[in-house]
Amino acid sequence: MKLASIICTVVLLSLLWLVSSQAERDGFVVVIDESYRAEIAIVNQTELAELQFPAAQSFENISNRELRRAVEREQNFPPESIFQISENYYLTDNRHGKLSGFNSQDGLKTIAVFGGKLKNLQSVGVDKHGIIFILIKSDINSQTNYIVKLIK
Amino acid sequence: MLELGVNLNGFSAGVLEINNNLSSLLNSLAGQSLIFDNLVGLVLKNNLVKAGVIGACFFAAWHERKTILETVNTRKILIATLLAIIAVLAAMRMISHSVLIPRTFVQSQKIYFLEDNRLVENAPVKYRLPLDESSRKDYRDLQRGDIDTNNLGSFPSDHAGFFLALSLGIWCASRRFGIIALAWTLGVIYPAKLISGQHTLLDILAGAMVGMVLLFVCQFLAGGLGEKIVNYLSEWTLKNRVWSSALLFLTVFELASTLGHIREFLKFLAAAGSYFLIS
């Protein structure tokens, strides 16, 4: 039994080394709408202040009835911030790390899901080229922020 | 030194590629027959089919007709096995939280991983969706962006460790019932996990190794430092047959549900504790 336990321990440690050497990952982005690709930028607090990141509105201020109904139909979907550009709305759900999009034709659809260090979505904005910018804080005490760009 | 590092990195990448290819090959059996996929789904989701057989073997080994001394020894092994599977589940949770490897069906999507502050696109993994309703629901949820946290840490397989430790513990206590439990684990539960694409071969192998190591450690401790406690518990079950039977029923019931109810109960206790702390 001693020999078997030594062999198993060696095999287990080898497997852990094997997998961890190939999987040094802190977070992820699952792009549900596959027409987008993701890029990242890391910024400190000073750079962030200079970026003039678009201010997202609170969901309570949105008067679009279709959107309100669509969100209420979803179970367990509390949007924290919302950004509107023409007929399109972009919503972040901090609790589940979700970025969703809404327009009256397609309804409410998840665009991407974030996890690990990238789960804490703070705000969302879209530029005139349709590039989505998502501001993420890796943790509350951290001075480092991530900005993930989703580009079509 | 640098060359050795590069070679080792290449070796591990090669092993992982072989693992992915073999796992894809096994997963290619799914999605072809509705009956076959439902059978595989039944093994994965139905506690009676999945764990009922092994729970029954545990029960049979516990009550197997032997001399009093043999019965005490058998029960010592089975009690140490119970401690081992609790340790296995705790160890699995710790490892899977530190190694971010989502299940194959999540990796079949367009996914980027944060590595050294860079977003690296993962090469899409081949995945055949089983035709049973449960697998299709999980996949629909993924398409809607609802990813269960359980699907984000597939390495190592907790079921592989749990059932192997349990079956091997039963085998140490009683050869004939242990053989049935081991055959069920290796011949039914493991293939179902691989065919459905829930785990790769490496997940299963690592889970099995964790299960075996912790079972050996617990059996070793039960014969050494913890011998007095395990002896006392074992003799207590002989002196208090009625109470021990009631406890055994609860234990086997929980084993058959892979300790799912206990986890819910612990969550309730944690919620109740935080409520009283806040108030």
As a whole number of angstroms, the C-alpha radius of gyration of chain A is: 20 Å
Low-confidence stretches of chain B: none
Strand content of chain B: under 5%
The global form of chain B is: globular
Distance between the termini of chain A: 58 Å
What does the main sheet of chain B amount to?
2 strands, antiparallel
Structural class of chain A: alpha+beta
Average of the residue pLDDT scores of chain B: 86
DSSP, total strands of chain A: 9
Uncertain segments of chain A are none
Give the strand order, joined by hyphens, for the main sheet of chain B: 1-2
Number of strands of chain B: 2
Helix content of chain A: 10-25%
Q: Greatest contact pair?
A: A-B, 44 and 44 residues
The description of the largest β-sheet of chain A is: 5 strands, antiparallel
Gross morphology of chain A: elongated
Query: Over the alpha carbons, how many angstroms does the gyration radius of chain B reach?
Result: 21 Å
**What fraction of the residues of chain A are assigned to beta strands by DSSP?**
35-45%
The helix-strand sequence of chain A is HEEHHEEEEEEE
Q: Enumerate how many helices of chain A there are, as a single number.
A: 3
Topology:
The complex is a heterodimer of chains A (152) and B (279).
Chain A (H helix, E strand, L loop, with lengths): L1 H21 L4 E5 L5 E7 L1 H7 L13 H9 L7 E5 L2 E6 L4 E6 L3 E10 L4 E6 L5 E6 L7 E7 L1
Antiparallel strand pairs in A: 1-6, 2-9, 3-4, 4-5, 5-6, 7-8, 8-9
Chain B lengths: L1 H26 L6 H12 L1 H17 L4 H31 L5 H4 L2 E6 L2 E4 L11 H11 L14 H16 L1 H21 L5 H23 L3 H13 L1 H16 L3 H19 L1
Antiparallel strand pairs in B: 1-2
Helix pairs in contact in B: 2-8, 3-4, 3-7, 3-8, 3-11, 4-7, 4-9, 4-10, 7-8, 7-9, 10-11
